[in-house]
Amino acid sequence: MSFYQPASQAMIADVVKPEHRSHVYSIFYMMINIAVVIGPIIGALVFNNYTSQTLIAIVLADLLLLILLTKFGRETAPLALNPELRQAQRQKKIGTVLLEQLKNYKLIFTDKVFFLYIVAGVIISQSFMQLDLLFPLYITEVIGDASIFSLQLTGEQLFGVIVSINGFCVALLTVFFTRIMSRYREKLVFMNSSFLYGVAILLFGISTGPWGAILAIILFSFAELMTVGIQQNFVAKIAPDDKRAMYFSAAGLRYTLGKVIAPFAITLSTFVGYFATFATIAVLAVISGFIYFHMYSLYEKQNRAKA
Question: Does residue 298 belong to any structural domain of this protein?
Fold first, then answer.
């Protein structure tokens, strides 16, 4: 996945017109989430009774995808499409290529706009990663057993409902939200998405019943949907044509670093309690919103200077 994601996102930027990229990225994101929802359901139904057959079917599906990509896929990277540059690249030694890659990454992080994008992304990632970390603990330990429409649920079952609501919101509303958000300035969309994350996290931290948690996860899902497609489109806009895959790869650091830092929220909750922890994460989300605002202001200033 770490190889596939940057290359696929760069390919979309190569072949899709700028005005349509956000829409295409949103469809791409929606299909991944549909697969995430459907895959475990199919696996739960067939894996235990048909383990070998399921694994063989997965391998055959991957081979079919490989054949289709080989037969119908075409190269889109500007570097690969230039015969002279491609030949020069082939003649380079591995050490030279790795050294150039390191220099390119250094160049990427001297891009102030992109650096701010990474910083804000790492901070905001603390919010949505709590869906798998702090949320289940809070639901089982604080909210506990609950009743929804006369249906009795344990804390674990309620968490399953919460995750399902998030998954279905993302799977069903991604394209719709992207179309709506494309009407507004990206700067305001990014900033308000971060603010909405903060509101949702804080609401979750004060919820003592199932309905408060459900409302919080709906707002949480809306905050996620606001920037789907727009994020990748922004990276595609600021990245040089011959370094798009590298920019997309570096943009993945938002989630990589976020995964390293996010579990500290659990440790923090043992010292200061759940509410203070949720409030801290909410404040971080708001801070990321202001960083996004500053990032876009700098980006717009650079564009005016070039014009």
Answer: yes
What CATH number did the domain enclosing 179 receive?
A: 1.20.1250.20
For the record, the structure tokens of 240 come out as 């040089």
Question: What confidence score (pLDDT) does residue 84 get?
Answer: 52
Radius of gyration over alpha carbons of the chain, in Å? Answer: 22
HSE-CB for 152 with a 13 A CA cutoff: 1
Residues 12/246, Cβ–Cβ less than 8 Å: no
Q: How many CB atoms lie within 10 A of CB 118?
A: 19
What residue has token string 């949505």?
Answer: 128
User: What whole-number distance in Å separates Cα of residue 78 and Cα of residue 242?
Assistant: 6
Structural domain includes residue 286: yes
Each residue of 23-68: pLDDT tens digit? 676 777 777 767 766 776 677 677 778 888 888 988 998 899 888 8
Sign of the four-CA dihedral 68, 74, 76, 77:
positive
| Token duo for residue 129 | 């990663």
Residues whose CB is less than 8 angstroms from the CB of residue 170 and which lie 6 or more positions away in sequence, other chains included: 29, 30, 33, 221, 224, 225, 228
To the nearest 10 degrees (0 to 180), the angle between helices 112-128 and 230-238 is 160
Q: Classify residue 264: in a domain, yes or no.
A: yes
User: How confident is the model at residue 78, as a pLDDT?
Assistant: 54
Number of domains in the chain: 1
pLDDT digits (tens, 9 = 90+) for 291-306: 999 999 999 888 888 7
Report the alpha-carbon distance of residue 93 to residue 80 in Å, rounded.
17
Q: Which domain holds residue 209?
A: 4-46+92-306
Q: Hey, how many other C-beta atoms are within 10 angstroms of the C-beta on 230?
A: 21
Angle in degrees, 0-180, between the axes of helices 112-128 and 186-206, rounded to the nearest 10 = 30
